[in-house]
Design brief:
By secondary structure, the chain is an all-alpha fold. About 75% of the residues lie in helices and about 0% in strands. Keywords: Membrane, Transmembrane, Transmembrane helix.
Length: about 260
């Protein structure tokens, strides 16, 4: 029997071109809240996080091109830079979440002065925890899929798919802001949260890639794992943000229990 090689398709070799779209998404999503007010006073962590995020996006774009043009030595060198970059990015993302947590809490408190009903301390903690649930979940996804990609770095096939799953975390922060800041939509018809669009898009992309792998006779286990993790945790996001344990968890890690 003649052994056949699974059919290839051009998506992964050309992944760098697809990742160029991220640049447009970042500019569109952060124009109103960052680029257009760049020189206005803002917390240092905002600039630090944006700088690290920019480096991460550049790396996402460059790495597939290094593979495409057979610069594997450079691909490995750049990949090793991520061992420092991504942990710093995750730390900055957490600090940004913490910054947003207290800014939101302060905003709600100030609204009370304008005649809006004053919230109790418990209600403030609950609303702030709920508001920062989304960035915490994206932080979790980035950390998890990046870790899985690095643990499987010796298997190009598996590594590329986990890294793609990690890259998809860029969609939420950018697309959500485009809907809200550019289009002016904060909630879809029937009360569907705007973040649902990015969630569904991620699932569609992973499902499509899984279908392509299956069609080409390739092992689909890696993408199946990615799809299951995203699907379950997306569902958990909608459930957890209103639960007491989530409020307690956020209050603890944000250091708000002493307020």
């Amino acid at each position: 029997m003649v052994k056949t090689t699974p059919k290839a398709y051009p998506l992964y070799p050309n992944l760098g071109y697809w990742f160029l779209i991220i640049i447009l998404l970042v500019f569109g999503g952060f124009y109103h809240t960052y680029f257009s007010v760049f020189f206005e006073p803002k917390a240092t962590i905002i600039h630090v996080h944006f700088g690290l995020m920019t480096a991460w996006v550049v790396m996402l774009i460059v790495q597939p091109f290094l593979i495409k043009y057979k610069k594997k030595a450079w691909h490995r060198r750049v990949g090793k830079v991520s061992y420092v970059l991504v942990p710093l990015l995750l730390i900055s993302a957490f600090l940004m979440t913490k910054h947003g947590y207290f800014v939101y809490m302060d905003l709600i408190a100030k609204e009370a002065v304008k005649g809006i009903p004053k919230y109790t301390q418990e209600e403030l903690l609950h609303l702030s925890a709920k508001y920062q649930a989304l960035p915490m979940f994206y932080l979790f996804w980035l950390g998890l899929f990046y870790t899985l990609a690095i643990l499987n770095r010796k298997s190009t096939y598996v590594h590329a798919r986990y890294m793609l799953a990690a890259a998809l975390t860029v969609l939420g922060p950018t697309i959500d802001r485009i809907w809200f800041m550019v289009v002016g939509i904060s909630i879809f018809p029937f009360g569907i949260p705007v973040e649902t669009f990015a969630f569904v898009l991620i699932i569609i992309l992973l499902t499509y890639l899984l279908w392509l792998d299956n069609k080409a006779g390739r092992n689909t286990k890696t993408l199946e794992i990615c799809l299951v993790i995203y699907s379950i945790s997306q569902g958990l996001y909608f459930i957890a943000q209103d639960m007491v344990w989530w409020e307690q968890f956020m209050t603890l890690i944000m250091g708000a229990e002493s307020l």
